[in-house]
Amino acid sequence: MQDLINKITKRYQSDKTRLVDILLDIQNERGFLSRDDFGELAKNLKLSKAEVCETASFYHFFTFQKAKYKIYLNDSLTSEMAGHDKVVAALEQECNTTFGSMSEDGRFSLEKTSCIGMSDQEPAALINGIPFTQLTPYRVKELIADLKSGKELKESIYEALGDGRNADPLVHSMVNNHIRKRGAILTEDYKPFDVIETKLCTRSPEEIITIVEGSNIRGRGGAGFPTGLKWKFGRLTKADHRVIICNADEGEPGTFKDRVLLTEFPELVFEGMVIGAFATGADIGVLYLRYEYKYLLEYLNGVLDDMRKNGYLGKEINGYKHFNFDIRIQLGAGAYVCGEESALIESMEGKRGEPRDKPPFPVEKGYLGYPTIVNNVETLASIVKIIKNGAAWFDSMGTSDSSGTKILSVSGDCLFPGIYEVEWGTTISDVLEMAGAYDVQAIQVGGPSGMLMGPKGFNRTLSYSDLATGGSMIVFNHTRDILRDVVLNFMDFFIEESCGSCSTCRIMPVVLKDKLLKILNGYGVESDIADIASWGKLLRISRCGLGQTAGNPILTSLSNFRNLYEELIQKDKEFDAGFDLEKAVVESCNFVNRKPVFETH
Ligand code: SF4
């Protein structure tokens, strides 16, 4: 084992900031991590054993189980809506173990995980990093039988390969793109690297930034910060190196647009990074790819290799003097919070993905202390079209405060889940009509951190002044129990994903969930509704967006579906402890072998 650790740490020049890569490589080569190795690893990297342990214990996909096949089943809401429970039962039966454990023969381990970016084709699981979608008990039976008979995992894909470039030999995946509506970004009018060849040479970096500012594009990740301004700040900060990061860590349940962009248009995304580097003066580029999309890694590295061969990466790109820039792919290891830019940078530096206090902002002091511009996948793809067609072209689409188009990931109770590129200003009703969503009781816009709304809000428009969104939209018909099926699942998501640094974010989602359960179990009273309304707001003082929005499932359902809470509470009581006191006394007396005595009045 020592040899393997030495070989892998040498691969990264014993650079402690590459600890996540090193742990991933050890796990890849040996199948699992062992705490026994951490001492050696710490010595090689000049870290303490506790620091290695801290990182290794933070991420979902680091495993200490030796199973040959590690099965991670998505337990997010869209999976539950599509038959997740039946798949759980089938997996437990066929693999002969339970979730959270490994089979006795060491062949299978079963784990649950948050959204894996397949909400349009659930239930889905990752098996040793390979996605298996649209699982049913029958398919589980066939798949596990195949694996038991010794078939290779990739040969066990039980359907034809997916559409488009999912069938590329380097992807070889059964995932489908489900592109339902193409707009300015997803059109096929794109000639890879044409903008690098024909547009950069005639303009200065400052002119490129002026075009981006003129287009009024705002970051597509959800926060909506003006991209041109971010680039300008990055360029103005004095430093020896600057960094541009493409944030491909979309983890919001219901979101999968980056998966499709990276599969079908990776050149567009990488070209956007090169333009960003030219404009800001960055010489270091990193695509932070969520672990759930590891199946795209080899394919994406192939695209980067071709770019190097053709002079679109490396020294003096396309012959431009002093323009040196390259891109590497940093794989995440499974943590929703790493979608937050400073947490992502911590992760890239080999640490736990805990958000930093701000200021300083990454654009002043980010990755390894250098000014760092973090852009979303969709933003970078849009940039290429902006430079190609001009700022006015882009700004002419959308609304006065939201220019261009937005790529939506639509899932849940609709006939056509998938990707829709629409102009900003489109109404929710329009999107529901496109997706074939009927009998709609509610939709969740923007994932668990967004808003749950009923039909009264369906005439609202997607825009920064009305409904800003990172792009996830989940549809619920009238068969869904909004509080039990939706809100509870989202609260579990936040409880699971909190990094634990802030007491509000660590504690309040648990407290809120308990209150919700009290109401759902019939013990709620009016003051419980008042409590969750005010306690939910306490979360807003948390350090990062995850904690600040963790009360939203409760708060927005309370705003738009208050009647569902009212129907469940007891009207004739002012106080209820929330449990059956006599039953609890009997249970505890039984436990200590005493006879319960109750006073009678
Ligand atoms: Fe971590 Fe939550 Fe605090 Fe964000 S708000 S830093 S996720 S504890």
TL;DR of this structure?
The chain is α/β, with parallel strands linked by helices.
Enumerate the spans where pLDDT stays under 50 for 5 or more consecutive residues.
none
> Which band does the percent of strand residues land in?
5-15%
How far apart are the termini?
71 Å
Helix amount: 40-55%
Mean pLDDT across residues:
95
Q: How is the biggest beta sheet arranged?
A: 6 strands, mixed
What's the gyration radius in Å?
Answer: 25 Å
- Heteromolecules bound: iron/sulfur cluster
Strand numbers in spatial order across the main sheet: 5-11-10-14-12-13
> What would you call the shape?
globular
User: Structural class per helix/strand content?
Assistant: alpha/beta
Relevant terms:
single chain, 601 residues, alpha/beta, 6-stranded mixed beta sheet, 4-stranded mixed beta sheet, 24 helices, 14 strands, 40% helix, 12% strand, globular, binds iron/sulfur cluster
Describe this structure in words.
It is a single chain. The model has no long low-confidence stretch (mean pLDDT 95). By secondary structure, the chain is α/β, with parallel strands linked by helices. It contains 24 helices and 14 strands. A 6-stranded mixed beta sheet has the order 5-11-10-14-12-13. The protein has a 4-stranded mixed beta sheet with strand order 2-1-3-4, covered by helices on one side. The chain starts with a helix and ends in a 10-residue tail after the last helix. The chain is globular and about 95 Å long. Helix 13 (297-309) links the parallel strand 7 and strand 8.
